[in-house]
Amino acid sequence: MIETPAPARLGIAVVLTAAAAIVYELLIGTLSTYLNGDSALQFSLTIGTFLAAMGTGAFAARDVGDDPLPRLLRIEIAVALLGGFSGLLLYAANGLAPGGYLACMVALVAAIGHLVGMELPMLAELLRRAGGWRNAFAGALSLDYFGSLIGSLAFPFVLLPTFGAVKTALLTGVVNLAAVWLLSPRAARPDLRGSRRAALVALALLIAGIVGAHRIVSGFEELLYRDHVLHAETTRFQRIVVTRFRDDLRLYSDRELQFSSRDEYRYHEALVHPLLAAVRHPEQVLIVGGGDGLAVREVLKDARVRGVTVVDIDPKMTALARDFGPIIALNRDALSDPRVRVVNADGYRFLLHDARTYDAVLLDLPDPRTEAIARLYSREFYLRLLSRLNHEGALTTQASSPYFTREAFWSIDATLRAAGLQTRPYRAYVPSFGEWGFVMASRRPIDWPALRLTLPRRWLTRAILDDAATFDADTAATANAPVSTFESPAVWRLYRRRVRYWKD
């Protein structure tokens, strides 16, 4: 009789392999979003390809044979190496063959998914032979689902924020090798010696990868960003990278430029100063987004401001703005000012529970490049903001580019008007981004010519402000701009369509 592992060891192995599989799936989707954006496409491709490949793998393993254990151990080692190095492989594909990244990603997902699909029939057969399970296949499925739950919870809350994407993949490879150890019978079997030696080699490779991961990723990111990387970290919400080239400090979120120190003052002056000029008593200011502290810097120039509440979802971003020297120098340590309160929360959920009212609101948000961010450009969000805005108050939102994403820009304006607000769209030229758009909104009509700019500024003048409210034929309002809602995020669809147009 061929010896099989004990039922308890087999059960734990099923849980570990399932947890590892879901982590690989989530990690590839997340890292692909970091590298190439368009989270809906990346996760759809990853999940669909992974599930289909699992189907082909399960079909390929339908005939488990007399002794599936040696084959299963070889599969686990292959999954450990391919999945463990998946993060580095994706970085390499993006850096060395960016045009072929999607094909490389799909091929990698398909290979891992096929191997993972082969695991379950073999594990179920081993459970059946080991006894202790009335229905071995049902037991294997239930343990597999439970392991998937563990992996799906560990990934966003523990693994990704603690270790980052690349180390998470490598550590998950070690989990697959732990399953190899559990599956190996206590009594030595000569036919499994080769697998044990291969597992030790794989473990050594994964440990070497873990030790060298930071240096390797830094090298790839230097290649990606073309500038010296000062800081890089993966958080629950984004990949943050800070680079420097000569006197130009740049901050990226998921490879999207957030600011360049050479011209960020143009953007932030255009965002902040017209709003402060429009509000008679801006004592309490709410900033949603703006975790880099640069908008706060401009707001604090106004002596009338008594309190600033900054709501940014990512505590790592606000910590960077408070603790990282180059950014502190740029934002003048704004987040440490005693008038500033920092709240790390989702903007919409914050408003659901916040009872305060505000005189001025600044929405310094990323572009609506995902459905999640598009919620903060919706009629529902603006209605919630309106309930927290004092009667004489006003708000301003960044609204992407009226040239590059023209339809999305005017959809934001239409959505604010649909929430019952009077709007004043305007634009400013920021060299790092091109023509950029903003929309000011209030319950009452905004008297643009009456705005008086009195605070210290580097760039914004009355003449620039007058010109900002005019739009030429390439940026003028589009007919029947749609309103964006939770249920129908028009601004996200319009933004994606234009971004794809310019990329193609």
Commentary on this structure:
This protein is α/β, with parallel strands linked by helices and 504 residues long. The protein has three domains: 7-217, MFS general substrate transporter like domains (Growth Hormone, Chain: A), CATH 1.20.1250.20; 228-258, no CATH class; 262-503, Rossmann fold, CATH 3.40.50. Helices cover 56% and strands 15% of the residues. It is built from 17 helices and eleven strands. The chain has helices spanning 7-36, 39-60, 69-84, 86-96, 101-130, 136-183, 193-225, 264-278, 294-299, 315-323, 325-331, 347-353, 371-374, 379-388, 406-418, 462-468, 490-503, and strands at 228-234, 239-245, 248-253, 256-260, 284-289, 307-311, 340-343, 358-364, 389-398, 422-430, 434-442. The strands form two sheets. It has a seven-stranded mixed β-sheet with strand order 7-6-5-8-9-11-10, with helices on both faces. Strands 1-2-3-4 form a four-stranded antiparallel β-sheet. The longest helix is centred in the first third of the chain and has 48 residues, at 136-183. It is elongated, with a radius of gyration of 27 Å. The termini are far apart.
